[in-house]
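Notes from the 1:1 (GR / supervisor)

We went over the backlog. Supervisor wanted to see one worked example end to end before approving the batch request, so GR pasted a single chain during the call. The sequence is below; no edits were made to it. Supervisor asked that the structure be written out right there so they could see what the output format looks like.
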Amino acid sequence: QVKLTETGGGSVQSGGSLRLACDASRFARTSICLGWFRQRTGTTKREEVAFIEDDGSTRYADSVKGRFTVSEDNEKNILYLQMNGLKATDTAMYYCVAELSPCYSRGDPQGIGYWGQGTQVTVFS
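Structure output shown during the call:
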């Protein structure tokens, strides 16, 4: 059963912006932590991009700090990832993720219980 649905991927020129959205309304918001991971084409590694902890604090990968912003609409239980200043190195499949609270994954994909189907982001020069 699909519980996380991402939208908003696409192709954009280097320096451009995209906003991803994730419908997490099938979860009770207080029972989960939400975030975004990505996986570059040709690699098996899934890296954490942004994550909202149980206490509401946010964590970002060093490579996206200052360019990406994670936020959420608590009423609708939708998670967003605003991506500005996109670079070719941001090209990847982006996944919305959920971890049951209390959350201990600390960036480890093995600790994530739920994954969306992914949305492709391609940044071209």
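Supervisor's comment: The chain has a mean pLDDT of 95.
Batch request approved.
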